[in-house]
Every structure is written in C-alpha cells, then in structure tokens.
Amino acid sequence: MYDALPNATSIRVLDLLEASSTRVRCTMHVVNLETNPAYAALSYTARNPITVHDRRLSDPVALHEVGNPQLPFERSITHPGPAVVPKSFAIVDGARREYYHQTLEHVHNFPYEDVNYPDGPPRVIEVDGCAVQVGENLFRFLASLGELRKQMSEEPLEASELLEARDALRLPIWINAVCVNQEDLEEKAAHVTLARAIFKSALHVFAWVGPSDRLGDRATEAIDIILGYIHAQELRQGDPLGIALDRPLPEEFTMSSILEMTTAHWFALFAFFQRRWFRSAWAAQNIILARQAYMVYGENMVDMSLVVRVLTYLDNRGLGPEFCAFGRAFLTGEPVSDPGRYVTKLLAAANLEGAEPSPASVTEALVVEPKDIFTFIRGFHYIRQHRRPRLTSALSALRDLDTTDPRDKIFAFLGLVDDELGIIPDYGATIQDLYRTATVATIEKRLRLSILSHVQDAQNTNIRDLPSWVPDFSVRLGRVPLDKGTTSECDFRASGESVYRLAANPNGTLGVFAIRIDTVSTVTDMDVDPVSQILKVALGLPAWYPDKPLSWCLVKAGGGSSSEELRPRTVSRVEALWRTLLADNVKAEGYYPGEFADYLGNGFASWVLRDILETRVGIHEHAELEKMHWVRSLGVDSFCSKLALWSAMYDGHQVVAHQELNNIHIPYYERAIGKLYRKRGDEREQYQLDLHLGIPEPTVGILHFPTANRLMECVGDPVDELDAEIAQEHLSGAYRANARSRLTSEERKGAASFEERMRIATEGRSLFRTPRGRIGLGPRSVGKEPGCKDEIWILSGADVPFILRHEKGDRYRVVGEAYVHGIMYGEKLGAPCNWEDIILV
C-alpha cells in the first residue's frame, strides 16, 4: 500500500468515500506540494482526547444529609492542630453547591480527572481495498467527518462561511497516521521536516478535539456566551451613552464579571480546555501554520478563530490564574470559593500544612496542568507575531506543551524557527544525544548561554544521565525564562557584552568563565501567605539596599531630545523587594522610563494593603459564627502578625534570625490597632512639620509602602457594607470584594497591575536572600538540598546570573537562572573582577 514517494515534496492524501460509526472507506493518492494541490490536513491526538469526565454519585438522596462525607460541596478535614481548632470540621463550598444545583438535569453527576480512560480497541478502515488499523479517536473523527458532510449536503446554505466549510469537508485530507508509513523511520523523519510545508500548504486544517459529551456541550454554550459578551463590550466601547449594555464595565475583571456565565459553564469550559489537543506541541505547530482552521467537536464544526478569540480574551483580561485555580480546585478537592480558601489559608499560615487530612479531603495533583491552555494561546500569538524565531524563543513560548515522544520537544518546533542548527529529525538517536546536540548547537551558533535558562528544577528531571547544563526538554519548565534568547526580549546584561568562548567537552562537561557573586541563605516559596512570606525575607535586608542598582532613566539632551539610559541609584529595601518580585519588568508602552515603575511601586503598596484588609474583613465575616470561633481566632492572629511585619518594615528594623521574627509578633488585636493609631499620629505631625519648614513635596512614611494613615483609614471603616461599585461575586463570596471596596479606584488598578506582573515573574520561582543583603528570584529547588551550598555566579556569555551548586574543586552543577537585584545590568563588571575557569557537570 505504501509505494515509495516520487520526490521529497510528495505526500499521500485520502479521499473519503464512505464514513459512518460502523464503516470507513477511502482511497489514497499522491500529490506534489510544489503544484499547490487542494487538500485539507488533520490535527489530532492519538489517545483518548478527553481527560475530565463526570460520573453519577452513588446515592443522591443521602447527599442531603448533614455531615455526609460524600457531599460534593463539603470538604472534611482532620488534623492534629492546636487546641483552638477542632480535630475535625467541614467546609461547605458555595461554588460546588452552585454547580451541584445547576447540573441537576445530569442526575447528580460530578466531575473527575482520568487521563487513562480506555481508548477502546483498534478499529479498521478500508484504504484502497486494504484493511488498515487505526485508533478509536481517529475512527471517531472520520465518522464525524462523514456525518458533517451529510448534514451540509442536505441543508440549504447561503452564508459564505458555511459554503466555505462545506467545500473544506469535501477536500482530500492528509492524516499523518495513515498517509505516512509509520514503519519506515526515514519516511517518518522526512515528514517531520516536511510538516511546515504540509500545514502551510493545506487549504484548511481540521482540529479534532474529540467526541461530544455533557461537559463539552455546556462548554460550547459558554463559548457562545463569552463571544456575545465580547461583542457587547465592543459595542459599548464605541457608545459613550452606554446603551448597548445595561451594566457598566467592571473595573477589576473576574470570572463573576460575566453574569450569564454560571459555575457550571465555567467548569465545563475548563474541562473542555483540559482536552489533550489543547496541550499538544504538534497541535500548536499545526494551528500556528494553518491558513484556515476549523475545530471539529463531535458532529459540530467551529471556526477556530472564535475559540482563539475566547482564549485570548480570557488571557488578556487576566482571568488565566483565577480560571485555572477554579478548575484545579474542583478536581483536587481544594476549596473553590474564596471563603473556603480563606479558612484554608489561615490553617496553612498557622503551620497546619503537615496535618493528616481525612481521605475525603486529600488533595490530589492533576496529571494535566491547567495552565498549559494559556501556554498554547500565548505561544500561538508569539510565533505568529515573530514569524520564524530562534529555537530558544520557540521553546520559551511552547516548551510546556506535551509530546508522546520526548524527541518531538525539539522536532515539533524545527518547522517554526529560523535557526540553521543542523538538527535533522532522527528517531533512531537517543534522547540524551539529541538534547545535548541541540544545546551545544544553540550555544555555538549564538556564542551565548541563553539555552541554560531552560534548565529545569533538578527534582523535575525525567531523562537520566543528562549533564546539569543540558535542559531536559521532556518536562515542563513551569516558568517564563528571564532570557528568551533574543536581545529584543531580554534587557539584562549581567555579563556585559561578553560572549561564550570555551567549548563543550567530549566527557559531557561545559567549561565556562565566571565571577562568583554571593551565596543563598534564606528561601521562601511564596505559595501559602505571600505577603507575610516575602516581608519576612525582606526584613533580613538592611533598610537601604547594599548595591547601587542601575535603573532606566529618561535623560534629556540638547535641542529638546531625550534618551533612555541606565543610571545607578540608591534604593530602599522596599523598592529592591518590589522590583525583584517583578524581575524589574517595569516598562510599558506609552510611559516614560521610571513613570510606569513608580505606578507599579504604588501598586505594590496597594497589594500589601489589600492583603491586610482581606484578613481584617475575614475576621468580621466569621465573627458571628459561634461554632467557627476558632476561625476568628486564627484570623485575628494572622491580622496582627501582618501588622507586626508591616510595622517592622515601616520602622526600618533588620530582622535576620527566624527566632527574632517570632518576637515581633503582636499578640493582641487591641495592641495592634493602638500601635497603628500612634504611627498615624506621628505621620500627621511629621507632615505638618514639613509643611511648616516649606518642604515642597512632604513625604509620609516609606515610598511605595502603605502608610499608617492609609491603613487606619481602611481598617477603621465599617466592613458590613459593600461599596456600590464593587459587586458581590457569586463565585467568590463577599469578603474579597468587601476588602477591595476599601481601596480607591486607582489603588485597585495599581494592585491588579502589580499582581499580574508579579505572578509572571514569580511563577515557578522562590524568593531568596543572601548573607550580603541581596534579594533575588531563583528556581524552586534553590537552597533545598541539605548540606549543599548554592552560589550566585555571572557567566561570560550569559545575560542573566545563574545559581550553581558546588560539587568539588572547580566543578559545579547548574541549579538554574536567577534574578538578583543590583547585578542584572553589568553592575559588577565596573569594579575589578575575579574571573575564574570552572566546569559545569
């Protein structure tokens, strides 16, 4: 059946003769891409595409019994906590309860993740009279294609887009699993190289995301709702009278802002985007290259641009983190609504993380990472905007997506990049050899060490026997690299204009020229109670940062011209802290250098203020619940602790030892408020004195940090009434909205802007401090290996610093890239430098 192809640009395509749920029959012929043939191409995944399913609960009647451990919206927790906390308690989750009531027509089905759901036995299709085995998922697509053809041939069509879709269905189709001889490794490798041409030349690409199910049907409703919401917003933005919408655009956008979207809609959409196709590296390549693409779901066909539009909108409005956390919590047993998350956060902050939960409350990790859907859509836009970027840039954008064969983490992206690295797809090569070859080729091509920014956390390494400086591309990186491999995307120049001049050794080591800067002493992951965790690390710094970091400034020249220049500045530890949390990502189009940085600095102050207020409002929310009085107790404890940390930062104290941190805790609520009153009085006196002395711009407190006066204004407000502009969120409960209502509109916007940039910079990273008073961001594994010393180095040819773990002598292992405030722009190259020859193993 597979005769040799006549030339390097020839491919086989299928003509579908008959397709139903019981039989598929087709013929195959050869076309030459150089003749511009008319055909379609299929993008799909071989395995069962659905990863989130729903099942019927065993006894729906019993679910209404209070305390039933199977209650789908109740989370039971058992732990050996302090005496103030009951040994066992339950949290009723409002969002889960809403979902339960919104899906009653499904007879009490509840969702769960199962990536090993049976695919079904292989099916047989007929190709040129020969029986060919295919997977169940491919057979279902062909059956759906046949049904779609039948539907469109029987219905009268007038709209041009429907006529175009009908014509697309009639085209011959290229399907990798059938049109390529999978037994011929040379042909298979040749088609990997040809993939770019195949998908770019196809008139249409069909993206088969899988068969229909209950969750998928509701997800398509959700897509329609969001598209309608987007359209209504667009109308209103051109309508100053606001008559196109009957409600104002929300100031801070959340999932609750789209009122027509129920909890059931949001979860169904989440489950739909958990399907395998949306996290496939090959699917991303296919759809990026496509001229025109259709998503085929069951017996439905949707223009893929509409799906892209929905995902892009959710991402651009900053809904990604909330959307992913919402869906993840639904499947793992964590609280979904904010009130439940508040209680869980209090327990974690009270050092109850090590508790033994009951089986009903065990949190399981998801196999399919929810964030990958936004990796998919961001990578889609990035590659299309940058045309053919470098391999390091493509990996930065798409590396976290899945492939069945680890080699495809390189091969899948070769058709998207312009690097002439000499890498030829070879499925006979070992994974280790391929990854090392790709790494060395990238270094030698650019004489830069940007590819080292892709080194994963050591505990995540999957491929054995890789040198520490060679990334294991088969696993998720889990963070956005600081150096994406192009000068236009990396402002940092830690090693100046130096280039890499040594070479990789045959024994698998890499020689580098480097400067030792500092060591890592204190580390926090920022994932339990971020504000408290980062303030505890920052308190170990001196009040004024030890280095004079370079910052971008607007320098005016003669003739009214101006330019951006890096200038050294003395900065407080507060500024060093918030700039580190952003990895100094403080530029924005339309702003002068320093202007947007000041806005983000104020956003940091608002973010800290909002966190303290949320704890304060949480106390009030639970004040009247007698049986939950321990929640109030923990809330008061958390609030007082945050005020104590704020006070120590405000007063300029340096607290290095962990024991000293415990000593600054204020034990009583009344004392905390009293101290705040006194500080407010001091601020007012200082302000009046500055006015009396004629100081033109009197300052109060610390720049970019909440003042006592502002804290007192917010904390002293009654918390039983919501601001009229802040709608109560049906997915989150009232306490977060209540806290936000205490902030001004500008503070809310600033906090949201800061938090979004901070999330990007800190995701997958830990905050650390050094003995010399520096602060930085590094891999999750930094400082986690007992008995090991993690050191900060500047490597010649690397734009960012790296954390290296000393082995012996001059040999080091790469832990990962780092942001260290004060050394990112070559500050350490001005003084005499002690360059050393070291070996990376």
Automatic annotation (TrEMBL):
Protein name in the entry: Heterokaryon incompatibility domain-containing protein
UniProt domain Heterokaryon incompatibility: residue ranges: 171-285
Organism for this UniProt entry: Chaetomium fimeti
